[in-house]
Structure formats: structure tokens, C-alpha cells
Automatic annotation (TrEMBL):
Parts of the chain that traverse the membrane: 22-40, 94-111, 118-137, 143-168, 180-202, 214-233, 323-341, 347-368, 375-396, 408-435, 447-471, 483-502
Domain Major facilitator superfamily (MFS) profile: 27-506
Any GO MF annotation of the entry: carbohydrate:proton symporter activity
Organism in which the protein naturally occurs: Heterodermia speciosa
Family: Belongs to the major facilitator superfamily. Sugar transporter (TC 2.A.1.1) family.
Gene3D superfamilies (UniProt xref): MFS general substrate transporter like domains
Recorded topology in the membrane: Multi-pass membrane protein
Pfam families, per database record: Sugar_tr
Keywords: Membrane, Transmembrane, Transmembrane helix, Transport
GO cellular component term of the entry, any: membrane
NCBIfam families in UniProt: SP
Localization annotation: Membrane
Protein name (database record): Major facilitator superfamily (MFS) profile domain-containing protein
SUPFAM superfamilies: MFS general substrate transporter
Length: 571
């Protein structure tokens, strides 16, 4: 597009997004690959901690079979040594598992800032690089100290990737399929968990460092694929608009929509993004770095469109996703299922739960667009309340260990799997979809970063406390199946949260979401229809804005639009 081209925008609410080609859909879908990191990295640690080679190397203890070559009776010293002594101490297990979340927590928060300065795409590539540095420490480690250093560095990388992939996908995806595409990210998380389980299973019996180094080293592959792919993909046009680089914004929008740069559609969509950004900048001026952060918390919590309300909804959304208890099943399911007594092969157990997770997620691609985010979150929470209460009730009655009732135990396992299905089709993907959509552009990167950090914070809390909730040692709560009453009750809070606080964002552009949150409450949001465009409301549709080649555009036209915004107000 030649420098100096004037774009005007549209007054037609149907035209605020350009039609999309198949190639452009594929571009958007590729970024979902970032979910593999998330899943794989959370998936391999548990398996490695249980590997005999790793335990011997770390603790310096002899293999049980070497120490007791002739006695393999159940009650023998061999059994006692194998189950009670030959293991990584619980404190170190907890440290190596949870330290990743500490890194991801800080990584996600920092990433929001970085993404606003150097761009979404570059931030993800940097995340991959940090991740590789951490991976080198992890692979080289022969003990817990170096492993922990590697875990925390990897965590920072995963934090970057997990937050900014959501941001990037939400900003480039076409509105009609944005929910389904972001759900693709959740699908990749589930595949990552499954792959980690399979690789660990394949190497667990090796009697060399390959047992743990191979599962760790496989991660480099994900980092390389994502970084190389993103190198080729375009930057988010919304980032360029935020930076005032309108010519570059036009070029990348043309690429993500697969349209010629001078197409009227591209100009209209770009004009809408510009007009919305100018409007938001006027409402919440951004002057200093500190103000950029404080902006995330401005306004009244009781006002549906205030920044603080959106930030709190994002943070609570991810907190409630974790408090559904899903990771209790993935992290401690093996121990729990074994204690029920029907399945003794731990790998088979985690394979069942992870497979149910992988196979149920595609359902969300359809329902997140058909019924919307709000509805599926409400239904999903109701489903999980029911499933978890059933598991709890059976667990304290017919399923008790003393009853030795195999049918009851099988029923509990079946309902736990139904519970996973409800999560995988609803809260798993929708929590990510919603945090990518509810923030206005000036605080979007930081808002998504804070929400993602909340996910990792609660993930960490759960991995630290649950062993004590179900533990049977002195001082442990020893809840057994009763723990499902706790998760079920927390799902009641999730249900209430979704009903009162989550707006319906399906089918709207990110700018329309902004407008909708301005004009109606979450409970009425599903019926809201766009009635005006930002270009129209701000006067940009009449005056136009000039694009200049690779320049920061603060042209007379933009200033005029800003003046108009100052004078007009919405709704
Ligand atoms: C959650 C993870 C969870 C995974 C399971 C994600 O959306 O944030 O904590 O392990 O889903 O599929």
C-alpha cells in the first residue's frame, strides 16, 4: 500500500472483519501448538521422579533388587525398602514439581510487558529461547539442584509462551471461529500431557541417563517448531495499531486474513481497530510504565466494563478453572485410583485419564461457538458438581475399601472420567478463550499475563496442598474420596462466578466485546447485538486516517479523530 493512503472505516457492523481464506485459518491455528509446551512440561516430571535410575542417581541408594536379590515376598524387607525408602523425599518431589509454576507465574506477568514493547510474536520466540536454556540445565542435571535451576528457567519460558500464545491467537483469529481456534490451544495442552506420559513410559526402564534425559530433551523439538513457525508468521496487527505503526498493521492484517492489502475489507477492519484503540486510550490514558500497570486496576469493581472488573474476572476465571480440581486427577489420580484397588498399573491409569481428556476436548470446538462461552461454563460447572458429588457419595458408601465392592469402584472411575469430559469440553478451553477476549487493547497484554499467572499460581497451590489432603501420614487430612465433595463444592462457586460475572463474547470482534461490556451486564450479554461501529462513533468513518510507510502515525487525521472522541461518548 502506498504511503499516505487514507482509510476511512465502515458504518456497517457486519463489515468490521475481512473474510478469511483457508491459508489464513491455518496461520491462526499454528500458534495453538504452543499448548504442547504447557502440557508436556507439566506432564513429564511426575514420571521422571518415579524412575528407578533417577532415584538411584539422586539419592545414591541401591536398587531394591540389588540390595535384596533373593527375597521378593510382599511383606519382605525388599517390599518395604522399595516402597518406603527407595524414593525421592516428598519435600524434593514437591519442590521440583512446584518450582516450574513459580517460574511460569513470573514469566506470565513479565511476558505481558514484553509483548507490549517488542510484539507478541517476538515475545513467544524469546519464550522458546528461554525455555531451551532451561532445558539445557534440566538435561545436563544429575541432581535436584541443577534440575531445579532448569525447571525455574523453563517455567519462565512456559509462562511467556502460555500467556502470549493466547493473546496472539485471540488478536489474529477471525471472530466466528476465535473460540474454536483458542480451544485448539487447549487441545494441544492435552496432547502435550499425553505425549509426556507416553515418552516417560517408553524410557522408564532404561538403566542409563537416557531414562530421564530423553523425555526432557524431546522438549527442544517443541521449542524449535514453535519458534521457527512464528518466525514465518505475521505479527498481530493489533500490536502494530497499539504502537501507532499503521502501515505495518495493514500489512500483517492482510496476511492473517489472506486478502490483498488494498482491499476495502482490510481497510474497514483496520479502521475499526484503530478507532477502538483511540477510544480506549482516551478513556484510560497511558503515560508512564507504572500507569500502564495501574490502568489494569482502574474504575469501580461494580461496573461491568471497568478495567479492574475485567482484570478480576480474568484472574478469577483462571483461579476457578484450577479449583475445579482437574489437576488433582492428573497429578494424584494414579495414587487415588490405586488406592481404590481395581487398577494396579499406574501407567494404564494415567493413560485412561489423559486419553479421556484428549478425546473430549474436540467437542469444545463446536459447542464454544454454537452455545457460547458463558453457557458452556455454566453447564460445565453444573456437570462437574454432579459428577464429583456422585464420586464422593459412592466413595463414602458402597465404594469404601472395607466394602470391597468392585462394581462401585468401577462406577467411581467412570464418573471421574465423565468429570474430565465436562472439564475438557467446557472450563478447560473456555477459560483461555475468555481471558483472550475480555480486555481492551491498552491493557490486554498485561491482563492476559495476570490471568495466566493466576492459573499457574493456583496450579502450584494445588500441587503443594493436595498430597496433604489425601495423605494418610500423621497430620494429613486423609480425606480419601471425600476430597471430591471439596472439589464439587468449589465447582458451585465456579458456577456462580460464571453466571454472574462472565459475559458472552461469542461471534463478536474484540472491539465489539469492548462495546458490549460497556453497554450490558453479563446476564444480558448473550442477547446483545452490535449497533454501531467504532469508526462511525468516533467520526473516523467520515474523516479517515492516513497510513504512512513504516512510520509511527500521529497524523492530523488521528488527532482529529481523537478530538472527536473527546467530544463524543458511547451509549
Ligand atoms: C489447565 C491445566 C490442566 C489442563 C488439563 C488446562 O486448561 O490450565 O492446569 O492440567 O487444562 O487438560
Amino acid at each position: 500500500m502506498a504511503g499516505g493512503t487514507v482509510i476511512t472505516g465502515t458504518t456497517d457492523t457486519e463489515r468490521i472483519e475481512a473474510p478469511v481464506t483457508v491459508r489464513a485459518y491455518l496461520i491462526c491455528a499454528f500458534a495453538a501448538f504452543g499448548g504442547i509446551f504447557f502440557g508436556y512440561d507439566t506432564g513429564w516430571m511426575g514420571g521422571v521422579l518415579a524412575m528407578k535410575y533417577f532415584i538411584r542417581q539422586y539419592t545414591g541408594k541401591q536398587y531394591p533388587a540389588d540390595l535384596y536379590p533373593f527375597s521378593t515376598d510382599k511383606e519382605s524387607d525388599y517390599q518395604i525398602y522399595k516402597t518406603k525408602t527407595f524414593k525421592i523425599p516428598a519435600r524434593d518431589q514437591s519442590l521440583t514439581t512446584s518450582i516450574l509454576s513459580a517460574g511460569t507465574f513470573f514469566g506470565a506477568i513479565i511476558a505481558g510487558d514484553v509483548a507490549d514493547h517488542i510484539g507478541r510474536r517476538t515475545t513467544i520466540i524469546i519464550g522458546c529461547t528461554i525455555f531451551c536454556v532451561g532445558g539445557i540445565f534440566e538435561t545436563a542435571s544429575t541432581g535436584i539442584a541443577v534440575m531445579c535451576v532448569g525447571r525455574i528457567i523453563c517455567g519462565v519460558g512456559v509462562g511467556f509462551i502460555s500467556a502470549i500464545v493466547i493473546l496472539y491467537m485471540s488478536e489474529i483469529a477471525p471472530k466466528k471461529v476465535r473460540g474454536a481456534l483458542v480451544a485448539g490451544y487447549q487441545q494441544c495442552i492435552t496432547i502435550g500431557i499425553l505425549l509426556a506420559n507416553c515418552v516417560v513410559y517408553a524410557t522408564q526402564d532404561r538403566d542409563d541417563t537416557g531414562s530421564y534425559r530423553i523425555p526432557i530433551a524431546v522438549q527442544f523439538l517443541w521449542a524449535i517448531i514453535l519458534a521457527v513457525g512464528l518466525f514465518i508468521l505475521p505479527e498481530s496487527p493489533r500490536f502494530y495499531v497499539k504502537k501507532g505503526k499503521l502501515e505495518q498493521a495493514a500489512r500483517s492484517l492482510a496476511r492473517v486474513r489472506g486478502q490483498p492489502i488494498d482491499s476495502g475489507y482490510i481497510q474497514d477492519e483496520l479502521a475499526e481497530i484503530i478507532a477502538n484503540n483511540e477510544y480506549e486510550k482516551k478513556v484510560v490514558p497511558q503515560t508512564t510504565y507504572i500507569q500502564g500497570w495501574t490502568n489494569c486496576f482502574t474504575g469501580s469493581i461494580f461496573k461491568g466494563n471497568s478495567n479492574i472488573r475485567r482484570t478480576v474476572v480474568g484472574i478469577l476465571m483462571q483461579m476457578m478453572q484450577q479449583l475445579t480440581g482437574i489437576n488433582f486427577i492428573f497429578y494424584f489420580g494414579t495414587v487415588f485410583f490405586q488406592s481404590l484397588g481395581t487398577i494396579s498399573n499406574p501407567f494404564l491409569i494415567s493413560l485412561i485419564t489423559t486419553l479421556v481428556n484428549v478425546c473430549s476436548t474436540p467437542l469444545s470446538f463446536y459447542i464454544v461457538e454454537r452455545f457460547g462461552r458463558r453457557k458452556i461454563l455454566i453447564i460445565g460447572a453444573a456437570g462437574m458438581i454432579t459428577m464429583q458429588y456422585i464420586v464422593g457419595i459412592v466413595g463414602v458408601t458402597a465404594g469404601r475399601e472395607s466394602e470391597n465392592n468392585k462394581a462401585a469402584v468401577s462406577a467411581m472411575i467412570a464418573f471421574i472420567c465423565f468429570n474430565i469430559t465436562f472439564f475438557a469440553a467446557t472450563w478447560g478451553p473456555a477459560a483461555w478463550v475468555v481471558i483472550g477476549e475480555i480486555f481492551p487493547l491498552p491493557i490486554r497484554a498485561r491482563g492476559v499475563g495476570l490471568s495466566t499467572a493466576s492459573n499457574w499460581f493456583w496450579n502450584c497451590i494445588i500441587s503443594v496442598i493436595t498430597p496433604y489432603l489425601v495423605g494418610t501420614d500423621k497430620g494429613d487430612a486423609n480425606l480419601g474420596a471425600k476430597v471430591f465433595f471439596m472439589w464439587g463444592s468449589l465447582c458451585i462457586i465456579s458456577f456462580t462466578f460464571a453466571y454472574f460475572l462472565v459475559p458472552e463474547t461469542k461471534g463478536l470482534s474484540l472491539e465489539q466485546v469492548d462495546q458490549m461490556m460497556d453497554e450490558c451486564s453479563p446476564r444480558n450479554s448473550a442477547g446483545w447485538k452490535p449497533h454501531t461501529t467504532f469508526a462511525q462513533a468516533t467520526g473516523l468513518a467520515e474523516k479517515g486516517v492516513v497510513l504512512e510507510n513504516d512510520a509511527r502515525v500521529e497524523t492530523a487525521a488521528v488527532e482529529e479523530v481523537q478530538e472527536t472522541i473527546r467530544q463524543k461518548s458511547f451509549g
